[in-house]
Amino acid sequence: MSKFVAAIDQGTTSTRCMIFNHSGQVISLAQKEHEQIYPQPGWVEHNAVEIWGRTQEVIREAVAKSGVKPGDIAAVGITNQRESAIVWDRRTGTPYYNVIVWQDTRTKTICDRLASSGGQDRFRSKVGLPLATYFSGPKIQWILENVPGVRAAAERGDALFGNLDTWVIWWLTGGPQDGSHVTDVTNASRTLMMNLETLDWDEEILSTLDIPHAMLPKIVSSSDPHTWGSTRKDGPFGEAIPVCGDLGDQQAALVGQTCFLTGEAKNTYGTGCFMLLNTGVKPIQSNNGLLTTLAYKLGAQPAVYALEGSIAITGALVQWLRDNLGLIKQSSEIEILARTVQDNGGIYFVPAFSGLFAPYWRSDARGVIVGMTRYVNKGHIARAALEATAYQTREVLEAMKIDSGVKLTALKVDGGMVYNDLLMQFQSDILGVPVVRPKVAETTALGAAYASGLAVGFWSSLEDLKTNWQIDQTWHPLMREATRESLYSSWRKAVERTFNWVD
Questions:
Q1: CB-hemisphere CA count at 13 Å for 231?
Q2: Could you count the other beta carbons within 10 Å of the beta carbon of residue 334?
C-alpha cells in the first residue's frame, strides 16, 4: 500500500517538490529559484524551459532525500502561480515566447480597448473578474498579436496555451508524446474566459478576445483520478504515478487550511497576498472590488466558490529591498531591521509596483513612500514595508465583510511571511482579530497533495484532512482601537497618492 503523496508547487520565484505522509506532515522538501526577467518597466517574464528543468531537479532531489521508493507514492498533485501565461508548440514543447507573469502590466492597452465597450466589468457577470492586466486572457491575446507565427500556429492547432499547472502536467505526463493538456476549474477561473456557471470556456468571450478554442486546455475537476495521465517511467519520478490533483496556489492553500465550510477564510503571504473566503456552491458577485472565483471541485461533487482579495506585492517588496536596494542581505533580516525602531516613523510604503489589485483595480497606480522626514532611517523603511502587507490585508477584509455579510472572528494564515512574528502581531492589531498559524504553514503544497490523495483514496474524506490541521501559534490584538483606526486612516491617504501616475 502506498504511504505518501507528492506535491509540486510551481511558484512565482521558485519551484518546490514536497512529499507528505498520511498525517499531512512533510517528509521531504526540495526547492530551487528561477530567474525573474524584466525586459522593460512593467513587464515581468519567466523562462518556461528553465521552470520545467527546475521542476525535474526538485522532484529528483525530494525523492532522493526522503528515501521513499517511487512505488510508495500514491499520487502527484500540482499547484502553481496563477494567471501566468505560456504558449508553446505541441509538436516540440518549445515555447513561442517567455511566460508572461501575473504581475506583468503590458496588456493595459488591450484591457482598455476591451473596456471601451461595456466598461471594466464587461465580463464580470460571466467570469467574476474585472478587465485587468492580472488575468491570462489578455496575455494570450498579446502573444497572438505580437509574436510572429503564433496566430497561424494556433489556427492550425499547433499552439497550446496553459497557465503553469498545464505546462507542468503536460510535461509530466509525456509532453510531445501524448501529454495531457488540461487545467482545473480554479486555474481556468483566472483566465477571464471560463463561465462560472457552466465551468467551460465561454465561446462569446473567446470570440471577443479572438482566441482559438483549439489552443485551450480541457477543464477538469481539481481532484480527479479518471481524467489525466501518469508520470512517465523515464521521467523525474522514475515511476508511473497518477497525476490527479490540480489547484491554483491560493485555492490550494484554502484546501490545505481545510476551509471547507461556508464562511471560513485564509490569507496566504507570499510574493503577493491572497485572501479567500469560502462562499459555498453558489457564486457571489462582488460589489466591492473582490474577485468571484472557484475554490475547488472534488471529483463529481458540486463546485465550491470563493470571494478573493488579491494583493500584488507583499513578500516581493521584501525581495525588492534586498535585491534592488541592498537594504538587507537575506529576506529573513527584514524583521531584525524593522525591530530596530518602535514604529514606522510616520512613513507609509504603498508598493503599487504593478498597479493596485483588490479592492481598487487601478493599473494607473505606482508605488510611493509618503511622510518622509530627516528623522526616517532604514529601520523605519523596513517596518513600513512589513506594515504595508497588513494594511492591504485589512482593505481586502473590509470589502469581503461587506460583500458576504460574514464578520471574521479569526484569520488562518500561511505562506513564507507568517514566520515573521512582528508582521503577524501587527496584522492581528490592525485587524482587531486573532491571527492563527497552523503547524504546517506551507499549506499551498499540502492542498495540492490533499487533492491528489483524495482522488485515489489515500484520504477517504474531508474529515480526514480536518483531523490533520493543528494550531502552531495564535496572535491576539494588543493595539488600542483609536490607534488602529488612526494608522489605517493614514494608510488610506497614502494609497490615494498612488492614483493616476500612469497616463
A1: 28
A2: 25
Considering just the CA atoms, what is the radius of gyration of the chain in Å?
22
Q: Are 384 and 346 in contact (CB under 8 A)?
A: no
- Residues 235 and 173: their CA atoms lie apart, in Å, by 9
Q: What is the three-class DSSP state of 14?
A: strand
CA–CA separation, 288 vs 295, rounded Å? 19
Retrieve residue 419's grid coordinates. 514566520
- What angle in degrees, to the nearest 10, is found between the helix axes of 443-455 and 249-256? 80
| Cross-strand pairs, 309 | 275
Residue (of 465, 457, 460) closest to 1 by Cα position: 457
Q: Which helix (H) or strand (E) holds 437?
A: strand 435-438
CA dihedral 301, 302, 303, 307 (to 10 degrees): -130
pLDDT digits (tens, 9 = 90+) for 157-186: 999 999 999 999 999 999 999 999 999 999
The list of the chain residues with pLDDT below 50 reads: none
Pairwise CA distance, residues 64 & 399, whole Å: 46
Amino acid at 449: A
- Region of 175 please: left (phi>0), alpha (psi -120 to 50) or beta: left
Q: β-strands 243-248, 159-162: how paired?
A: unpaired
Q: What is the DSSP string of 43-90?
A: --EE-HHHHHHHHHHHHHHHHHHHT--GGGEEEEEEEE-SS-BEEEET
So what's the pLDDT on residue 440?
Answer: 77
Cα end-to-end distance, the chain, whole Å = 61
d(C-alpha 389, C-alpha 172), whole Å: 35
What is the distance between the alpha carbons of residues 291 and 310, in angstroms, rounded to a whole number?
Answer: 8
The residues, any chain, with a CB within 8 Å of residue 51's CB and separated by 6 or more, are 10, 15, 34, 99, 164, 167, 168
Selection from 184, 370, 177 nearest residue 295 by Cα: 184
Q: What does the CA dihedral 247, 250, 251, 255 come to, rounded to 10 degrees?
A: 100
* Residue 411: strand pairing partners: 435
Nearest to 9 by CA among 351, 1, 26: 26
Contacts of 15 (CB under 8 A, 6+ apart): 8, 9, 31, 32, 34, 51, 54, 55, 58
3-state secondary structure of 378: helix
- Measured N-to-C along each axis, helices 136-146 and 108-115 cross at an angle, to the nearest 10 degrees, of 110
- CA dist 397 and 267 (Å) reads 10
Amino acid identity for residue 118 in this structure: G
| Non-local CB neighbours of 390 within 8 Å, separated by 6+ positions | 423, 426, 427, 429, 430, 431
